[in-house]
Specification:
2 domains, single chain, 15% strand, globular, alpha/beta, 308 residues, 9 strands, Rossmann fold, 5-stranded parallel beta sheet
């Protein structure tokens, strides 16, 4: 089939062939008329289990399910599930797998998606597990980059902001390592640096520069991937208050960038990108969010035929 995985847990599990297969499928489905693709998931029930808040990921998955003709069960608030009564994740997933053909899950504990996949025979799609991985976001990021630039290899990409806790940039680093001559500039305050194990794992495949100074490399960048300083990941609120406004992007950044420069952001944003950028050619983040639909349609259409 061209796709080797039985679950979508970590972008680290993907070969380049797997990634390209998903991107090609997404491009195909984006061009497919609604009525033609509305029977792809006919007769299938998808469990949408969000133990952690989400807007874009949850709604784009549920929209993708319905656009492909599937049915959705699940919850967006763990307080309405038996987890609030103390039921273990393993037990919850085992029970729910008896009702659904595919499980889409977001959880606040790192490794939870992997654990879920180990205890059930139905395909599990990780919609984010703590500060660990967010593989479907990474796939839509790659899809957005390829649509915009016509390629992924050879680009100079800046990752800005919370690189310590940001699961989107963790996953993106591993994915970019599949593409020759990509250069990554990790731009963050000292306390929010990219974890060294991620740097070390990819340093032989990517040219990586770590810096605290956005201005130093801004003129070189094709793309700047900004992230929110995540208040919910901080134990010390004082530390958060000290650095929350360390990078704020406005129109002034465009004075130093080259032609074709673009800005991406996984959203939600707080104050790291000013609204004045929204109407500029550089703003790619709303298109990025919309690209979640064809990419998640692609994953669902692929996983419906998986046998574990």
């Amino acid at each position: 089939m061209g796709f080797s995985l039985t679950d979508v847990i970590s972008i680290c599990d993907f070969s380049k062939k797997d990634i390209d297969f998903v991107l090609e499928k997404a491009a195909e489905l984006e061009k497919t008329p609604k009525e033609k693709k509305s029977r792809i998931l006919e007769g299938k029930i998808i469990a949408s289990l969000f133990f952690e808040p989400s807007t874009r990921t949850r709604l784009s998955f549920e929209t993708a399910i319905q656009s492909l003709g599937g049915k959705v069960i699940g919850f967006a608030d763990p307080a309405v599930s038996s987890a609030s009564k103390g039921e273990t994740l393993s037990d919850s997933i085992r029970i729910i797998s008896g009702y659904a053909d595919i499980i889409v899950m977001r959880h606040f504990i790192e490794g939870s998606a992997r654990r879920a996949a180990e205890v059930v025979k139905k395909p599990v799609i990780n919609a984010g597990d703590g500060a660990n991985q967010h593989p479907t976001q990474t796939l839509l990021d790659l899809y957005t980059i390829k649509k915009e630039f016509g390629k992924i290899s050879g680009l100079k990409i800046g990752l800005l902001g919370d690189l310590k806790y940001g699961r989107t940039v963790h996953s993106l680093m591993y994915a970019l390592a599949h593409y020759p001559n990509a250069e990554v500039f990790c731009i963050s305050p000292e306390s929010l640096r990219m974890p060294q194990e991620i740097i070390q794992a990819n340093s032989g495949k990517l040219k990586i520069v770590e810096t605290r100074d956005l201005q130093e490399f801004l003129p070189e960048l094709d793309l700047l991937y900004a992230t929110r300083i995540q208040k919910e990941r901080f134990v010390d609120e004082f530390e958060y208050e000290q650095i929350k406004n360390i990078f704020v992007l406005g129109k002034q950044v465009l004075e130093k960038t080259k032609k074709g420069f673009r800005i991406m952001h996984p959203l939600p944003r707080v104050n790291e990108i000013k609204p004045e950028l929204d109407s500029t050619e550089a703003a790619l983040y709303f298109e990025q969010a919309r690209n979640g639909l064809p990419v998640r349609e692609a994953l669902l259409s692929i996983m419906k035929d998986v046998e574990k």
